[in-house]
Amino acid sequence: MRLVLVGWGAIGSEVARLLKARAAPVDLVGVAVRDTARDIGVPLIDDPAALAALRPDLVVEAAGRAAVMPWGLASLSAGADFVAASTSAFADEGTLEALLDVARRNRRQVLIPPGALGGIDALAAAARLPLASVVHEIVKPAPAWRGTEAERLCDLSGLTAQHCFFDGTAREAARRFPQNANVALITALAGLGPDQTRLRLIADPDATGNRHRVTAQGDFGRMEIVLDNLPLASNPKSSALTALSLVRLIENRAGPLVI
Ligand SMILES: NC(=O)C1=CN([C@@H]2O[C@H](COP(=O)(O)OP(=O)(O)OC[C@H]3O[C@@H](n4cnc5c(N)ncnc54)[C@H](O)[C@@H]3O)[C@@H](O)[C@H]2O)C=CC1
Ligand SMILES: O=C([O-])CC(=O)C(=O)O
Questions:
Q1: According to the model, what pLDDT value does residue 92 have?
Q2: Least enclosed by CB within 10 Å: which of 78, 173, 213, 216?
Q3: What is the pLDDT, as a whole number, of residue 151?
Q4: Where is the active site (predicted)?
């Protein structure tokens, strides 16, 4: 399987490292970066128009929400399936639908990995019957919220206890906190949609990892999933599980067993 990664940051480089360490049956044929003037041992591109020449089967984005549309359109048009990690891009009305239009025309797929989450299979299955409510709480250490609007909403360095600085819809959470709340759109797309899914964003001065608690109720029953994710050393905003989840998805596409 010919793989192209979009983004060579904390997640992208970790995905490549893990695939290599696990001898996954995958050829990394290119990486899309913003600055091609370096050597990582793989062909680098910075223009979506250059993607088709790499003949990818699968393109995996882990760059940022602005990368989703241009690289998604180029991937699907080039005959590759497209995986988006920066799912906050889908908080913008029409973005996902535009990608799905191109996917349909090219008989390709847009894949949304569970990323830092788990239990998305159960939530998406449960949503085949009516759901009454879905609530997703994200608790991260105070420093993980630095450089975001949370700095204006609370005194991150002066916190002595957990503080919820945002309580609203998944759409608004993903729009306002694109580096920390991509998962809001994953929960939303699996369940009740971006305007009916409730997000609570919490800074915790004592937390050492990123906690996700998803609670859902509906005709299927009730579910509650809690994950305590360790952050990636190279980016405390991102959970290590996100890279592992992408590796799982890639290996599932390349090997004979899907699990
Ligand atoms: N779906 C999920 O569960 C999660 C998603 N994420 C998202 O995944 C993405 C990657 O996260 P990290 O690797 O931790 O971030 P990072 O900041 O370490 O790396 C992102 C890299 O992408 C590059 N980049 C940005 N725009 C680009 C473009 N247009 N073309 C090529 N390269 C570009 C940056 O220069 C940087 O090297 C972010 O959008 C992050 O918010 C993060 C955690 C969980
Ligand atoms: O990695 C996480 O725990 C969640 C995250 O940053 C995101 O959804 O953007």
A1: 95
A2: 213
A3: 96
A4: 212
| pTM of the predicted structure, to 2 decimals | 0.97
In 3D space, the residue among 236, 17, 244 whose CA is nearest the CA of residue 116 turns out to be 244
- Count of positions (residues) in the chain: 259
**The domain at 2-115+241-254 falls in which architecture?**
3-Layer(aba) Sandwich (3.40)
Q: Ligand 2 pocket: which of 138, 199, 229 to mutate (most atoms <8 Å of CB)?
A: 138
Active site residues: 212
Domain spans of the chain? 2-115+241-254, 120-234
Q: Mean pLDDT for the chain?
A: 97
Of 217, 170, 167, residue with least CA distance to 197:
170
What residues form DSSP beta bridges with 135? 198, 215
67-80 pLDDT, tens digit each: 999 999 999 999 99
Per the annotation, binding residues for NAD(+) are: 116, 182
Residue with tokens 């940022």: 64
Q: Which residues line ligand 2 (CB under 6 A)?
A: 116, 179-183, 210, 229, 237-239, 242
Residue 7 has which token pair? 């983004």
With a 6 Å cutoff on the Cβ, whether 11 touches ligand 1 is yes
Interface ipTM: 0.98
